[in-house]
């Protein structure tokens, strides 16, 4: 099956390999690695490196070849110095201009184009985050290449694996573009080690182009709890909680007892029980914590798309036939209004 220019979906059954002639595979792989050159686009906020974005460096390490990282924003020196310590990066390109602070894709994409021209990279990699999702398609359009979205594995320098149809099918895609624009799924590429590196820092090119989009303000949900996308434990509530008051009364003490982040199903979010930023699933956050404990969630495929890669899934539901039990490692059939407070009490006593 062939899709639009540059990208083809590879059939899973491959033709048999022909007998090899020429240099040994070890020699040819290492010479290929020397030709590969990745640019990892790192994220920063308020002058601090976002360590979640270091998954892009891990993906670049899997590809092999040289690794450069790109950062931009006001007072970028501190961010660049922090990034220079990340293991595996050879060079940091830093653009010091507050106009790039909020990562507006309309001005960030042309900025990257200028810096990519200079560097001759084969792969540009960013996280499949709100930033990466708005930036990378624009960048791909400006470079007239295909964007390869939300990959979970790298087969070789041109072949990538990505879930499609809310994770119900896995596509292996092959790109023939000479520059690959890739976003990576954070749960599949853990952050590279933040220490051990000693990259050089270089000033990037800043076209200082006029931008028609202006950043006005933001309204962020503030929480002292762990960040949902990267937390080791997540407790999640669904429509079964019945109201915001009950969601808070039942789920928040459990999250506190476990030191967990709080998540929610879309039905819970749409009903106003939980903030939109807490939604887990196809149209929410994709998480893969050590423990995902959910209550009053049926287990619709769109919800599973956001949590099924969790290491241990525990579910509480009063319906023994709820689909969530098909993916749960531990299941408890019962009324969440009894079971969750009981569990919280036991955890607090430990
Ligand atoms: P329900 O399906 O209504 O399930 C509630 C569950 O609570 C039931 O299983 C019930 O048995 C149980 N329950 C009720 N009372 C109790 C009790 N007292 N004790 C124990 N159990 C109880 N959904 C997402 O979650 N995330 C997404 O990102 C997402 N994206 C979507 C994208 C699209 C394009 C579409 C079409 C849908 C999407 N959905 C998403 C919605 C999804 O299809 C489901 O509607 C939603 O996940 C259902 O949420 P729920 O499990 O909380 O509610």
Automatic annotation (TrEMBL):
| Statement: the UniProt record of this protein carries the keyword Mitochondrion | yes
* One GO biological process term: fatty acid beta-oxidation using acyl-CoA dehydrogenase
Give any Gene Ontology cellular component: mitochondrial matrix
> Which cofactors are named for this entry?
FAD
> SMART domains per the record?
ETF
Chain sites annotated for binding FAD? 239, 265-266, 279-283, 296-303, 317
Q: Name one GO molecular function term.
A: flavin adenine dinucleotide binding
Task: State the source organism's domain of life.
Answer: Eukaryota
Every Electron transfer flavoprotein alpha/beta-subunit N-terminal domain range = 38-219
For this chain's record, the cofactor binding note is:
Binds 1 FAD per dimer.
Alphabetically sorted, this entry's keywords are: Electron transport, FAD, Flavoprotein, Mitochondrion, Transport
The signal peptide here is none
Localization of this protein: Mitochondrion matrix
Q: Where are the transmembrane segments?
A: none
* UniProt-listed CDD domains: ETF_alpha
Can the keyword ATP-binding be found in this entry's annotation? no
Family (UniProt): Belongs to the ETF alpha-subunit/FixB family.
What's this chain's function? Answer: The electron transfer flavoprotein serves as a specific electron acceptor for several dehydrogenases, including five acyl-CoA dehydrogenases, glutaryl-CoA and sarcosine dehydrogenase. It transfers the electrons to the main mitochondrial respiratory chain via ETF-ubiquinone oxidoreductase (ETF dehydrogenase).
Description of how the protein assembles with itself and partners:
Heterodimer of an alpha and a beta subunit.
Q: Which PANTHER family match?
A: ELECTRON TRANSFER FLAVOPROTEIN ALPHA, ELECTRON TRANSFER FLAVOPROTEIN SUBUNIT ALPHA, MITOCHONDRIAL
| Protein's name in the database | Probable electron transfer flavoprotein subunit alpha
Q: Which organism is it from?
A: Hyaloscypha hepaticicola
Cite the source lineage. Eukaryota, Fungi, Dikarya, Ascomycota, Pezizomycotina
């Amino acid at each position: 099956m062939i899709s639009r220019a540059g990208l083809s979906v590879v059939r899973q059954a491959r033709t048999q390999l022909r007998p090899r002639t020429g240099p040994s595979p070890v020699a040819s792989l290492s010479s290929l690695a020397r030709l590969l050159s990745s640019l990892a686009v790192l994220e920063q906020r308020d002058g601090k490196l976002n360590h979640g974005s270091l998954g892009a460096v891990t993906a670049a390490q899997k590809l092999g070849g040289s690794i450069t990282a790109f950062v931009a924003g006001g007072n970028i020196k501190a961010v660049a110095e922090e990034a220079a310590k990340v293991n595996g990066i050879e060079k940091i390109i830093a653009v010091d201009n507050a106009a790039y602070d909020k990562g507006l894709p309309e001005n960030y994409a042309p900025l990257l184009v200028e810096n990519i021209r200079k560097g001759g990279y084969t792969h540009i990699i960013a996280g499949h985050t709100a930033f990466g999702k708005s930036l990378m398609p624009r960048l791909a359009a400006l470079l007239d290449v295909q964007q390869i979205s939300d990959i979970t594995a790298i087969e070789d320098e041109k072949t990538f694996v990505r879930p499609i149809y809310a994770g119900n099918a896995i596509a292996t895609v092959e790109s023939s573009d000479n520059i690959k624009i890739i976003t990576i799924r954070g749960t599949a590429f853990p952050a590279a080690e933040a220490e051990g590196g000693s990259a050089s820092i270089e000033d990037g090119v800043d076209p200082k182009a006029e931008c028609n989009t202006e950043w006005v303000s933001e309204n962020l949900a503030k929480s002292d709890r762990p960040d949902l996308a990267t937390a080791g434990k997540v407790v999640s509530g669904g429509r079964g909680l019945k109201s915001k008051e009950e969601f808070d009364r039942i789920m928040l003490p459990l999250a506190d007892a476990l030191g967990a982040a709080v998540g929610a199903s879309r039905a819970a979010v749409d009903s106003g029980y939980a903030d939109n930023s807490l939604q887990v699933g196809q149209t929410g956050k994709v998480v893969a914590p050590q423990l995902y404990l959910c209550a009053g969630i049926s287990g619709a495929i769109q919800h599973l798309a956001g949590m099924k890669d969790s290491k241990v899934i525990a579910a509480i539901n009063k319906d023994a036939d709820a689909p969530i039990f098909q993916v749960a490692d531990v299941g408890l059939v019962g009324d969440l209004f009894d079971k969750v407070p009981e569990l919280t009490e036991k955890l607090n006593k430990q």
